[in-house]
Structures are given as C-alpha cells and as structure tokens.
Write a structure and sequence with these properties.
Strands 3, 4, 5, 6, 7 and 8 form a six-stranded mixed β-sheet that branches. The longest helix is centred in the N-terminal third of the chain and has 28 residues. Helix 2 packs antiparallel against helix 3, helix 3 runs antiparallel to helix 4 and helix 14 runs antiparallel to helix 16. This protein is α/β, with parallel strands linked by helices. It has 19 helices and eight strands. The N and C termini lie far apart (86 Å). The chain is elongated. It folds into four domains: 106 residues, no CATH class; 136 residues, ABC-type transport auxiliary lipoprotein component (Rossmann fold), CATH 3.40.50.10610; 113 residues, Serine Threonine Protein Phosphatase 5, Tetratricopeptide repeat (Alpha Horseshoe), CATH 1.25.40; 46 residues, no CATH class.
Length: 434
C-alpha cells in the first residue's frame, strides 16, 4: 500500500514547519516594519530596508519547506531523513515545485517593494448632483485629491489640466487611462442636498476592469477639506495603492489642511478655476481675497505669485509694469515660504522669478528653517523631491536649461514634463509665449 503524499508531508513535518515559519515570519515582519517606520532614517532608506526585509522573509519560505523535506531536527541534531521511495519522488518534486511557484506568486501579489515601482494614477473630475451654483465644489474636491497625490513618491500623477481636458474628450475609462498614461483611475461623484455632501469614490483598474477600492463619506459642505482628507487617506491605504507607511511623513505633510478658513478655501478654489480657464486677472483677485481671509494661506500666496508672473509675461506689457509684477510675485513667494518653508510651488517660483530679475527681499523669521537652496539645480532637486509629479516645474526647468544652452538636459526635462502633461495643456500655458 502506497503512502499518500499528505501523510508523507506530515511524517516529515513539512506542514508543521511551514506553519511555524509563516507565523514567525509574519510576526517578525510586523516588528521590523514598525521599527523601521519609526526610525530617523530617510524615507527612501526606510522603504528600501522594508522591501528587503519582507522579500527575505517571503523567499525564505520555500527554503524552509525544502529543508524540512530532506532533513529532520532530532535530539542528536540535524539528520538526513530517510530517502523517499522511488515511486513517490515525482510527487515530492511536484509538491516542492508547487510551493516554490506559489511563493513566487505571493511575492508578486504582495509587492513589498513599492519603493521605485511607479504607478500612474489620475483623479477624474467628480460627477455632480445638486444645485448648479455649487458645482465648482466637486471640481475642487477632485483637484485637491490630485494635488495631494502628486506629492507622493512612486506615483505618476498627470497634471490636473490634462486630466480635465481628457475627461472632456472621452468618458471611456480605458481610453482615458491610455491617453493619460496611467494604470489607475479615481472616479468620484458628489451629491449635495442643502449643506450636506455625499462623496462616493472608487479606485478603478481599466486594464483588468476591476474596482480595487471604494468608499462613501458624508459631511457638511464646510467640511470639504475633511472629506478630501478621508479620500486621500483611503487611497494611499494598504488596500488601494499600497503607498504604505514607509512614506508616513510624506503622507502626513501632503494631508495637512492648507487653511482653517472655509471662506479662504472657497476663494482659492474659485481662483484655481479661473486659472485653469486662462482668466489670470480674475484668478489673481480671488487668490488675493483668499490671502485677505487667511494671511497664512501659503498656497494662495503662491497662486497670487504665479498670476503676477503670468501677467508680467503677457505680450505688450511695459518694462516698468513687468518689473513691478515680478517684484510683487517675489514678495508673495517669500511670504508663502515664511508660512510654509517646504511648499514646492513657492520654491519653484522663487527660482523662476530670480532668473527673471525679480528683487528678492529677505525672509523674515528663522533663516535656518526658511531659507531654501540657493543653487538653481539644488533648488530644482528640492522641488521635485517635495512634489515628484509637478509638471509645471519640469516645464520651467526645461525653459531655464534651454536658456543656459543645455539642450540635452532641457530636452530630458521637457520629456518628463510631457509625461506628466500628456495633452500639453501646461506646455501651451508656459512655453507658448516664448
């Protein structure tokens, strides 16, 4: 009577070894990741160490199973188990091969190495149901989620203007993903009844035609930023994009409320809508209104600086008016950096304005905290480190490199910008008037 394979696995204690190893490896993995996550190491180093640790534990599983098959732990030490009967050798080999293949599948599915694995994701404009006067709130919500995701490493987030333009051309998810060069889409809807908002969102994989994650949240209209925070946190959770706790500090920084004033936030969103439509004068007034409502609103300051700069570049502007606009833009940049020293938009504009001859007043406050890099290349690297999917900065950097005669580097930066701005909406805005 032949011995069934299951009995042979039990006799050799392969199943027992596999269970003990899986439990111990899981526990050790959680301990290692918790220690790494709270260490003072740079976030990229933490990501790499965590990736290696998890990969080692997973790859060690088939090794432990194979060793358990061939060896036995006794009081006399490690001994070779008795040979397998020739008739069972093929079954044993097939079983061990299955374990190895299953381990490879688990490693591929778990994907512990999010470090360096870029995923393209686009946040589509939210469908809106409610009074027409509040329709812009839905666009602002999607724009803000897109903005926060653009700060995270290992994600490629198309510029909002490109996503907006693509969504107007087609509603087919697969075509949208292809146009924008992304593997994931965030689809959402906003329903407003009185002052009550209901937001529904899902993370969708067009290639597989699968919904990977979904949520429905409710709140008051004035709680829009809290709803945005819930959506953002859900998206970067383990069950969705798996950006993971490696980037805890980056996630917390991106998720920080830009202003405590809902009125200032509403004015800011109105300004962004005007800017997207090319109404720079109107956008400047709305950004100014947001700053008046909250003088510490750094992103509104950066927006006002950007509009001053755009108006200074308009054809036919007198030299004196251009100089005044550039200086006003630099003042807004400096005030933005005083409130938020690591605001990527303000740092990028600082370099752009300095290159165009704007006067640079000193930053009032702690110089060690507020003073950004002085070297242009270092400042560009600082901006991209803070906000990797910042198409605007790549365009500005390409323009600067071109002016310095560095054609190959300018072309490389331009190619990166076009990857993040596949429909060329920002290219026409920034480089069309050169």
């Amino acid at each position: 009577m032949t011995i069934p394979l299951l009995q042979e696995l039990q006799r050799r204690e392969v199943l027992r070894t596999a269970g003990i190893y899986a439990g111990a490896a899981w526990l050790l993995t959680q301990i290692v990741l918790a220690v790494i996550d709270r260490s003072p190491l740079p976030e990229t180093t933490r990501a790499l160490v965590g990736c290696v640790a998890v990969s080692v534990f997973i790859l060690g599983f088939p090794v432990a199973v194979v060793l358990a098959w061939f060896f036995d732990l006794t009081r006399s030490g490690v001994t070779r188990d008795r040979p397998t009967a020739r008739g069972h050798m093929m079954k044993a080999a097939a079983s061990l091969l299955l374990v190895v293949v299953a381990t490879g599948a688990i490693l591929w599915r778990v994907s512990p190495c999010t470090f360096g694995a870029v995923t393209g994701i686009a946040v589509l404009p939210c469908s809106y149901y409610g009074p027409p006067a509040s329709e812009s709130q839905a666009a602002g919500l999607a724009r803000e989620v897109n903005y926060r995701l653009s700060h995270l490493p290992d994600l490629r987030v198309p510029a909002w203007t490109s996503t907006l333009a693509a969504s107007k051309q087609s509603v087919d998810p697969a075509k949208l993903a292809s146009t924008l060069g992304t593997e994931r889409l965030v689809e959402c809807s906003v329903r407003r009844v009185g002052e009550r908002l209901t937001v529904t969102a899902q993370l969708y994989a067009p290639v597989d035609d699968r919904n990977l994650w979904g949520t429905e949240i409710e709140g008051q209209s004035a709680d829009e930023l809290l709803l945005v925070a819930d959506l953002f946190r859900g998206l970067v959770g383990e069950k969705a994009l798996r950006v993971g706790s490696y980037y805890r500090e980056r996630i917390e920084r991106a998720d920080r409320p830009p202003t405590p004033s809902f009125e200032a936030w509403s004015a800011y969103q109105e300004a962004c809508n005007d800017e997207d439509a090319g109404r720079y004068g109107d956008a400047l007034e709305s950004f100014r209104r947001a700053v008046l409502l909250d003088s510490q609103f750094a992103r509104a300051r950066a927006g006002a600086a950007r509009m001053h700069w755009q108006l200074a570049r308009a054809p036919g502007v007198a030299t004196a008016a251009r100089g005044a606009a550039l200086n006003a833009a630099m003042l807004h940049v400096q005030l933005a950096l005083r409130s938020e020293p690591e605001l990527a938009e303000a740092l990028a504009l600082r370099r752009v304005l300095r290159a165009e001859g704007a006067k640079e007043p000193p930053i009032v406050g702690d110089p060690a905290k507020a003073e950004p890099a002085r070297d242009d290349a270092a400042l560009h690297a600082q901006v991209i480190a803070l906000r990797p999917s910042y198409a605007d900065e790549y365009y500005w950097w390409s323009d600067w490199l071109s002016g310095q005669g560095k054609k190959s580097e300018a072309a490389e930066a331009l190619a990166q910008a076009r990857t993040l701005d596949p429909l060329g909406t920002l290219e026409r805005r920034y480089l069309g008037t050169r």
